[in-house]
Amino acid sequence: MGHLVAGVDCSTQATKVVVVDPETGLIRGMGRALHSVTGDHGARETDPSEWWVALRVALAHTGLARQIGALSVAGQQHGLVTLDARGNPVGRAMLWNDTRSAPAAEALVNTFGEAHWAELVGSRLTAAFTVAKWAWLRRNDPEKAAATAAIRLPHDFITERLTGSGVTDRGDASGTGWWSTKTGFYADQVLALPSVDLDPACLPTVLGPHEPAGQVRPAAATELDLEPGIVVGPGTGDNMAAALSLALSAGQPVISLGTSGTAYAVSERRPADPSGVVAGFADATGLFLPLACTLNCTLAVDRVARWLGLDREDVEPAEEVVILPYFDGERTPNLPAATATITGLRHTTTPRQILGAAYDGAVASLLEALEVVAKQAGGIELQAPLILVGGGSRGRAWRDAVGRLSGRPLLVPAAEELVALGAAAQAAAVWRGEDATLVARRWQLSRGTMIDAAPRDEDRMTQIRLVREAVVTSGLLARS
């Protein structure tokens, strides 16, 4: 049996694997493989079999598959994976950022009301939640829905292919809309709704933070060149795994700058935000993870840079220019049908100022969301630095925008692939009978670069907020 642990991050666009020394957290090998995302007019889909192929390729790239003794899978949240009676995918999976389910989400919210949903499942539903995607599928593709014998989340799908067990964890389950953070069980009144009509037997068993999902089956081991019988952790959602890797204490604020942006903090108090700004997730340790997500972050800013023919770091202060970069609709604020808008242009405006405005618009949404996260978490540590993670955290322009608009000191961890490392910490904990947070703390993954606080640019934040309020009120953000 191997002596290393592996963590898997099945994200929207790629699967990444890190192979780690379970004692020190030292990365011994890494692998990565892409998968495709297709769709237009709000659709975002992937063939689940691509995730399995990508896992095989990424594991092979590490060169250490035979030395792995335990592994765990973290995955993109919310995605709807439908399986037939033989366990094979029924078509493509609807991903978290598929906004076709927005009308279904609103119809579901109206069934019980915002406050009831928040109190029951921890969140006001948006288009991202799995229950809304299932309701959309039943209405728009009834043949596919009728062929569905089981429903899984992306990380569940991979874990089941590894072990043969239909399981999930409380962190990822809390993003479905049919699992209750209040009771710790599936919500029968949600499953019984006419637009949902789902037998709970179709859903995976929800494991606790330290329960193993099982062992790698011989057939899966052969496919992936793993040793059969190695331990598989329960897995979790990508945001929960990242939070685990940082060994966060309650109230430490985090902003993640990726394709999408997130703002979150671990909380001992169960969140229930009826406004829908904050999703009241469970975390991977037994606590909670109030989190706000924006659809448009680094991908949106990079798109503006390409349009202008600029390097992503080639920015100037935006002056009067304001960009609301809602190219894919938006989740925070909840505007699934929104388009982007730009205001404040003059003859003297430079392309670099326009790019600077794109950064400011994306960051302002995240910082406003963090303020609501703080309320749901019962406050955030006022003296603690704002932890900045994700691919964008490596960029000077991103750091400058977050520091200037937040007015807080920043901590940028040196470790990359925090989602996969969080999964690896979970695998090590389950394998060795340890607490996952203590494992992550021993690995010291939050060490990194400290950036002193800059004066908060209150005028700029106000300028962006007023523009957004004006265009939302006018209806100009919505597609015709």
Summarize this structure as a short list of keywords or feature phrases.
about 20% strand; single chain; seven-stranded mixed sheet; about 475 residues; alpha/beta
Question: Could you give the topology of this structure?
Answer:
Blueprint: E1 4-10, E2 14-20, E3 27-34, E4 45-46, H1 48-62, E5 68-75, E6 81-83, E7 93-94, H2 102-112, H3 114-121, H4 130-140, H5 142-146, E8 150-152, H6 154-163, E9 167-169, H7 170-173, H8 188-191, E10 205-207, E11 214-215, H9 218-224, E12 231-232, E13 236-237, H10 238-245, E14 254-257, E15 261-264, E16 279-282, E17 288-294, H11 298-308, E18 322-324, E19 341-343, H12 351-376, E20 386-389, H13 396-406, E21 410-413, H14 418-432, H15 436-443, E22 448-451, H16 458-474
Parallel strand pairs: 1-5, 5-12, 5-13, 9-10, 14-20, 20-21
Antiparallel strand pairs: 1-2, 2-3, 4-7, 6-8, 11-12, 14-15, 15-17, 16-17, 18-19, 21-22
Residue stretches low in confidence (pLDDT < 50, at least 5 long) are none
CATH hierarchy: architecture of the largest domain: 2-Layer Sandwich
The percent range for helix content is: 25-40%
Inertia-based shape: globular
Radius of gyration: 21 Å
Tally of extended strands?
Answer: 22
Q: Which class best fits the helix and strand makeup?
A: alpha/beta
How many separate structural domains?
Answer: 2
Please indicate the percent range of residues in DSSP E strands (runs of 2 or more). Answer: 15-25%
